[in-house]
Design a protein that fits this description.
Blueprint: H1 2-10, H2 14-26, H3 30-58, H4 60-79, H5 87-116, H6 119-148, H7 154-157, H8 159-173, E1 178-179, H9 186-209, H10 214-234, H11 250-280, H12 285-313, H13 315-336, H14 342-369, H15 376-416, H16 421-436, H17 449-456, H18 458-487, E2 506-507
Antiparallel strand pairs: 1-2
Helix pairs in contact: 1-5, 1-6, 1-8, 2-6, 3-4, 3-5, 3-9, 3-15, 4-5, 4-8, 5-15, 6-12, 6-14, 9-10, 9-15, 11-12, 11-14, 11-15, 11-18, 12-13, 12-14, 13-14, 13-18, 14-15, 15-16, 15-18, 16-17
Length: 525
């Protein structure tokens, strides 16, 4: 299962490194390339809940295989994109189907892991699962930089050997498929796909369209209205896509809310720290990826420790420790950003990573342990949908803060150097959009006033951008601080009362008996 989900995590970051080469060879517009990146994340967020429900209804092993095939076939087609007018539409379409495959694959894979391990060993197992799969996100930029030196198409084709290994291991493991009785709530699926898709689209495009744009708010508000309609509908349907009764469990609700605030910082960090390293520290893309490894060193160690705490004491201690460490780590890291030294920042990056590591696996595992009946896939779909939604909100809100503060800082710097206020404001806007990637200029080069000002004042602009990033990292610290206040509401204790048994599950006909010579995975190893 870890091989299978490796593809989905790597693909969240690997394409961004290859973006300049893709744009240059295929002649894509800047907005078109943004859609190539966003189509994957948008589809992933919109279909996660559906993927979890399908895993429950038709068996997680079957959905893992289908999701892997959809993902890898889409990857091959992305790498085979033809040059010409159809290139942009081709890439966007198959990046979206990639996201759909990942949305099927991930909750089903997690449901397999949950079903195989007994509750008393589940915390450590999922800590390893989340720790390694999360660290693979940092591998994306490193792998992308290396593969792009050969051809940018390889960033898609690299998924083929990984998928082959994943499918082979899935076959050898003889995983028993357990199905949950019920029917697919098609109307609910349409509502949540439209609601999640619209609102996430609004948040994603807020940078390009602007927060004052009617289109931005139409998507966000329209999506939220549809999601409210989804909740009202799910309360009435006999076999809902999401059983909302699970939110009556206060521990599950707290787990989900803490995950939301943790993800406001976790996924956006990849973008902001990478851009900061390249702009302020003059790092290459590969060096920027290495910069993030400090964060993941703390993350990987703490996720294992958090899993042990969960198994012995429950989720509450791990969540409280994680939120405190994350809040302090991001705040101290923010203080050091203006030193413009990677060496001075690594302890605080590792501390922030440890905070996130203490949160993600325990909160996700505790939420799954409190599933109603055997609805592992469904509950995983809920938590992963919340995580992706929070990531979109964090990128949009913190990105707006970054652009606004960069523009303000650079304007003040240029005015202090004698630029007229109107010229300084225009130049600053061009510079901030070039650096943050929110405008049409991909880099501050050329003969225009923005490029000239940036070349003449590079050190000052670097400091301005570093100071703007401080606001972003303080925002991440605040998010973890709010998460701590929410963690205090966790009732504590372990989810030791069985809420599901093998008798409650309806096994697939072929899974009623384990293959000869193989242990019965339905009751754990």
């Amino acid at each position: 299962m870890m091989f299978a989900v490796a593809m989905t995590f790597i693909d969240q970051t690997i394409v961004a490194i290859a973006a300049p080469d893709i744009v240059r060879e295929l002649g894509l517009s800047t907005s078109g390339m943004q859609w190539v990146v966003n189509a994957y994340l948008l589809s992933l967020a919109a279909f996660f809940a559906l993927g979890g429900r399908l895993a429950d209804l038709y068996g997680p092993r079957r959905i893992v295989v289908i999701g892997t095939l959809v993902f890898v076939i889409s990857s091959v087609l992305c790498g085979c994109v033809p040059e010409g007018d159809a290139a942009q539409s081709w890439l966007i379409a198959f990046r979206a189907t990639q996201g759909f495959g990942a949305a099927l694959l991930f909750p089903a894979a997690l449901a397999v892991v949950v079903a195989v391990f007994p509750r008393e060993r589940r915390g450590r197992a999922l800590a390893l699962f989340f720790g390694i799969s999360g660290a693979l996100t940092a591998l994306g930029p490193l792998l992308g930089g290396w593969l792009t030196n050969w051809t940018w198409r390889a960033v898609f084709w690299v998924n083929v050997p990984v998928a082959v290994v994943a499918l082979a291991l899935t076959a050898f493991a003889h995983i028993a498929d357990r199905r949950r009785p019920g029917t697919l709530d098609v109307r609910g699926a349409v509502l949540i796909v439209v609601g999640m898709g619209l609102s996430v689209l609004g948040f994603q495009q807020a940078w390009s369209w602007g927060w004052g744009s009617a289109a931005t708010w139409a998507c966000i508000v329209g999506g939220l209205v549809v999601l409210c309609g989804f909740v009202a509908y799910e309360r009435r349907v006999h076999h809902p896509l999401i059983d909302l009764r699970v939110f009556k469990d206060r521990a599950f609700t707290v787990d989900t809310v803490v995950l939301f605030f943790a993800m406001l910082a976790f996924v956006p960090l990849f973008f902001f720290a990478s851009v900061y390293a390249q702009v302020c520290l003059s790092a290459s893309p590969n060096q920027a990826a290495l910069f993030l490894l400090y964060f993941f060193a703390g993350f990987a160690i703490a996720s294992q420790w958090g899993g042990r705490i969960l198994d012995k004491q429950g989720a509450r201690p791990a969540l409280k420790i994680g939120c405190v460490l994350g809040c302090v780590g991001f705040a101290l890291w923010a203080e050091k950003l203006t030193d413009l030294s990677m060496h001075d920042q690594w302890p605080y990056a590792a501390l922030a990573g440890a905070g996130i590591g203490f949160i993600l696996a325990p909160a996700s595992t505790d939420a799954v342990n409190r599933a109603i009946g055997p609805s592992y896939g469904e509950v995983t779909g809920i938590t992963q949908t919340v995580r992706n939604y929070a990531a979109s909100v964090g990128l949009a809100v913190l990105g707006t803060v970054l652009t606004h503060r960069t523009n303000s800082n650079v304007t003040q710097t240029l005015e202090a150097r004698g630029f007229p206020p109107d010229v300084a404001e225009n130049v600053a806007r061009n510079i901030s959009e070039s650096i943050t990637g929110t405008g049409d200029n991909s880099s501050p080069t050329g003969t225009g006033p923005a490029a000239t000002a940036l070349r003449d004042s590079m050190n000052a602009v670097r400091m301005d951008f570093a100071e703007a990033n401080q606001w972003v990292f303080y925002g991440m610290a605040i998010a973890l601080g709010i998460g701590f206040l929410c963690a205090l509401r966790h009732p504590g204790g372990r989810a030791v009362t069985p809420t599901h048994t093998d008798a409650e599950a309806t096994p697939a006909p072929e899974a009623t008996q384990a293959p000869a010579g193989q242990p019965d995975r339905r009751t754990g190893p």
